[in-house]
User: What shape does this take?
Amino acid sequence: MTRPFAFSLSRAIDPRRGAPLYLQIVHALIHDIRSGRLTPGAALPSSRELAESLGVNRKTIVLAYDELVAQGWFTTHGTRGTFVSAELPETLPARREASADPRTPGFPFRATPNPSFVLAGKGLAIDDGLPDARLFSMDTLLRAYRDAGRRAARSGGLGYGDPRGNGELRRAIAAMLASHRGLIVDAEDVCITRGSQMGIFLAARILVAPGDAVLVEGLGYSAAREAFAAAGAEVIGARLDADGVDVEDVERLCRRHPVRALYVTPHHQFPTTVPLTPERRLRLLDLAAKFEFAILEDDYDHEFHFERQPLLPMASYAPGRVIYIGSMSKLLLPGLRIGYVVAPTPVARSMANAAAAVDRQGNALTELAVADLIDSGELRRHVRKARQIYAQRRDAFGELLSRSFGEAIGFRIPAGGLAFWTTFRDEATLDALERNAAAHGLRFLPSRCFAAPPQCGRGLRLGFGSLDADEAERVIARLRRAALAEPSLSC
Assistant: This one.
């Protein structure tokens, strides 16, 4: 007759899992011992008997038994058989219910909130303004990797290096910023990161102590707020209007709180897309000098500006007050995970030291390949081509929104960036859209994730850059169906 614990084993193992079958049996038997189902000294069935009851090869059971003997959970006594060890390799915890999930942590830990990203999953994703990875030539990228690999092999460039990042890439980025964004910096002022989010996190680590205040835009990037909160900061949202962050509110908050940093997205404000006016940029720099706080300027998509010559970054005329954060992921491919921070040399080095505590360095081969793309001019050629395509997609997306929703939504054509900010004249329409999105095969950032307390506000940030014409049609058709799924609503 099948023993009770053999039945429990049969439910705990599955040949379709990635783990070898004998290891699944090992883990299940250890769980049975720790839960009290198998007690010290208990006899185990023979390998043949257990193999037959589980429907597996006898060698699988032999491997499992041998592993458990080696770990000290089982002992063998010659021809008498195999037994649960009388002296187990660890102190047993208090007896748990036999049905307890062995994957449940047996120790306290601090749960972290889910990030506000459009993650992989079912349904059609509407991102928050990502580039279209299909626009960049894979042949060009593979050629850059191949050439970088050859150079690295000759020079020994694939070993451990500077935690600030590969020197060639840092020099290439410094030259690019000087030529196209007016930042007069050199490689010593550049720290390569694994995306702009890492740059924000590192800046928070070196700027903020528990109890300090960090100001952010009243509607903004939730992942940045989470990085500051993780450093112990009190994160406060400053008012936002049609010209960007309200500098009078920033000054008021500085007088009330020990502000150590202000995080802004002045070029294309996230999520509303509005640019910060030149007058307000200068006023923020004056406030930074007066109250001695750092400005974190997140310039995540500088190149994709469609109406006129973009304003120079704030860092270009006050480099000692600004930590400038940029991303190659938005220019090339998000999967490359290349971001960068530009700051005064000691600040850049301190950020690299903080990064080295958890990440010795980035991917040297990828960094060399991206340096080659910059130096060879491939990056600029790609940007010129992509900007034209994105401008066409922007205009077409705006027309689709107007035609599909009419007066039900409010938006303006963004001067730059790869997303629209849409607000709803009746919040019941937005509520219905979000409630019905999954049923209509849609995923997007929730409308409430942008507001930074004490500020409030809702809207949807709808990325258009990664959608071709057919995809954009499908997305907006589904959005409309989701909004109209309840008869009382109309657009």
Remarks:
- The chain is about 40% helix and 10% strand.
- The radius of gyration is 28 Å.
- The mean pLDDT is 88.
- The longest helix spans residues 378-405.
